[in-house]
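Researcher: Sequence recovery benchmark, item below. Answer with residues only.
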């Protein structure tokens, strides 16, 4: 029997945090009249209370407004409460506001640390320095009303009972950034405080096409199963979860219709790493190569369960260290390739060089059949399903950043043109490039998307971002 949410217990959207000497109290101030949350500063234990405790001359609290409780993180001796202190509304998802975390802060519940050994105190201090870095984690988004972890198709397919569950219960755990930090709050049944947070990207724009207005949104959802930054986190783990796995969803809304197209990216699903040294490009090292077929099979089994058919595009170089990785990847894929899983190698650097991205038309010609057959998700003006996306394109290069960004933006462009023709907005030969304002906004949309993903994995914007932003008009070239 599924646990149903109390309709009166929606997520709190604004709260007041009271800092007493021995406790924190989180008081809802959005008019919902809910209970307050009390957190012990001794050990981080939590309970609901009816009202804020009385203040006195010896219990003068600090007070500040917060916009969400992200969760509780336990270190060696203390626990640390993480809250959102500033937010920015960046758009809407199916009519519900989407917010970006502008600032967040850890509040220590570590009074018990006073009685800890000196060595433990020193280690705790080192971990605290890492928490200061974590407070600046980029690209965190949330909604109080809608499940941001699910694509439009999966959101529409939620059963009626599932839609009654608290948002954290509906969420795809792969994309729940604060999954671990929510555990103690889940144990305490604090549903109105349990705010799902996604790491990734969220951008949208509106553009006029004749008399019609099109709204385009691009969302990235970063997987939490194999986290870490470039160089330090590569390849797959033994369960098939890969580094830098990101789901990108392009959504258009126009004339009452909603269309969605999902792509994914992720590191080459082998057990490999790149030992950082003083060289410009550290060597790749494949470990436990005998396990490669099993790891690849697990990865693609998971993809097929979640997305249906899979076309894997491998963009790495044919020669050198990248070529060695690609060869092992292709060999392992022989155990996977079938009706519902395809593999294609496309040497991006050899064919496109550094600027000739119009040559991606060569790639598109090879994948067009899969691309068209597996479609996209479409709702009509009555909210009825008209089309389903039956499969996904999985793209990788080495970092799954620059070459992947350019390729995915080309596929997004092609799909948008298909959708606009389907809706009767474009004629058979019309392309995005023939609408300068739409073309410019679309390129900027994908460039910003790529920059966000790159910053989270590598610490810098995408190297090819400016080409996507200012020069790339792949569909115009593909149509020639």
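Model:
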């Amino acid at each position: 029997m599924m646990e149903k949410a109390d309709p009166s217990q929606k997520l709190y959207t604004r709260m007041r945090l009271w800092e007493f000497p021995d406790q924190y109290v989180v008081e809802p101030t959005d008019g919902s009249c809910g209970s307050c949350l009390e957190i012990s500063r001794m050990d981080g234990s939590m309970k609901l209370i009816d009202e804020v405790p009385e203040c006195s001359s010896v219990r003068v609290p600090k007070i500040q407004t917060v916009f969400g409780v992200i969760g509780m993180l336990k270190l060696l001796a203390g626990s640390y409460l993480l809250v959102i202190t500033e937010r920015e509304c960046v758009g809407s998802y199916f009519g519900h506001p989407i917010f970006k975390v502008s600032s967040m802060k850890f509040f220590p519940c570590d009074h018990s640390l006073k009685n800890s050994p000196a060595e433990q105190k020193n280690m705790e201090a080192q971990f605290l320095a890492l928490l200061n870095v974590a407070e600046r984690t980029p690209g965190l988004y949330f909604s109080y009303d809608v499940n941001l972890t699910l694509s439009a198709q999966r959101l529409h397919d939620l059963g009626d009972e599932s839609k009654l569950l608290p948002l954290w219960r509906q969420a795809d755990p792969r994309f729940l950034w604060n999954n671990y930090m929510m555990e103690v709050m889940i144990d305490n049944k604090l549903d109105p405080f349990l705010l799902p947070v996604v790491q990734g990207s969220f951008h949208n724009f509106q553009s006029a096409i004749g008399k019609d207005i099109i709204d385009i949104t691009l969302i990235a959802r970063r997987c939490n199963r194999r986290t870490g930054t470039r160089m330090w986190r590569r390849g797959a783990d033994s369960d098939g979860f890969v580094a830098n796995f990101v789901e990108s969803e392009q959504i258009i809304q126009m004339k009452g219709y909603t269309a969605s197209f999902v792509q994914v990216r992720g590191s080459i699903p082998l057990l490999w790493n790149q030992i950082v040294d003083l060289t410009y490009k550290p060597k790749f090292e494949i470990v436990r190569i005998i396990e490669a077929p099993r790891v690849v099979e697990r990865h693609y089994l998971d993809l097929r369960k979640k997305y249906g058919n899979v076309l894997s595009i491998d963009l790495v170089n044919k020669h050198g260290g990248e070529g060695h990785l690609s060869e092992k990847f292709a060999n392992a894929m022989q155990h996977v390739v079938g009706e519902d899983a395809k593999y294609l190698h496309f040497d991006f650097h050899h064919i496109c060089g550094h600027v000739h991205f119009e040559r991606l038309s060569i790639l598109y010609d090879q994948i067009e059949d899969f691309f068209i057959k597996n479609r996209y998700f479409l709702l009509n003006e009555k909210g009825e399903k008209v089309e389903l996306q039956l499969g996904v394109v999985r793209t990788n290069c080495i970092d799954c950043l620059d070459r992947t960004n350019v390729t995915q933006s080309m596929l997004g462009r092609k799909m948008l043109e298909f959708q606009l023709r389907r809706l009767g907005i474009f004629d058979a030969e019309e392309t995005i490039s023939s609408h300068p304002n739409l073309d410019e906004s679309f390129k900027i949309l994908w460039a910003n998307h790529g920059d966000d993903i790159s910053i989270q994995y590598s610490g810098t914007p995408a190297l090819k971002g400016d080409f996507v932003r200012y020069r790339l008009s792949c569909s115009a070239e593909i149509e020639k």
